[in-house]
Amino acid sequence: MPATTRIPSTLLGAVRASTSRVTPPIRQRCAYHSYDYAQPPPFPPAETKILSSAYAHVPNHGFTVDALKLGARDAGYLDASTNLFPRGVFDLINYHLVTQRLALKDSVQFPEEKDGKKLGVGSKVRSLTLARLRANEPVLHRWQEALAIMAQPTYIPPSLHELAALADEIWFLAGDQSVDTSWYTKRATLSTIYSTTEVFMTQDTSKNFV
């Protein structure tokens, strides 16, 4: 992305965080959420092959068209196959967001008890949130580029939608069973905390992100 179109990461965080305080709770419905039934794959087979291959190139090439083209070649497709992605590199960013969100179900397991006590919902939310932030580590040096793309007007709505989905996923996996207005406020609060922490993480130089 040309330097003239870059947006400071602090501004990106402010936009994403401040918008998330309002948008998700208004637009998101309290939908039925269950893993008792097989979930459909998030992307069609051909797109999955290309995006997963392209994702492997992100650490070196960033969230770019070059990464998409290299992914298409690795998956056995022509460069023109990137036309499958009308939103361009945002689709590659969205692939990271969606797959890492869905991975939480299997990557974070909670013991029945810890130190003789049952783990509370709040502790589970914290563990899941930290696990999701850690999942950014392999591409963290490229994440400010991704945030700049997500901050473009066209991509703000789908970015906020996925942020709301992440907050919902974390509370669901933590065992939250609220059915009152707190269902919305909990998710709006977590969305704000997550987005601001995510931006801070891109600038954190402390060892192991302490």
Automatic annotation (TrEMBL):
User: Which organism does this record belong to?
Assistant: Macroventuria anomochaeta
The highest taxon in the source lineage is Eukaryota
Query: Which of UniProt's keywords are assigned here?
Result: Ubiquinone
| Lineage start | Eukaryota, Fungi, Dikarya, Ascomycota, Pezizomycotina
Q: What is this protein identified as?
A: Ubiquinone biosynthesis protein COQ9
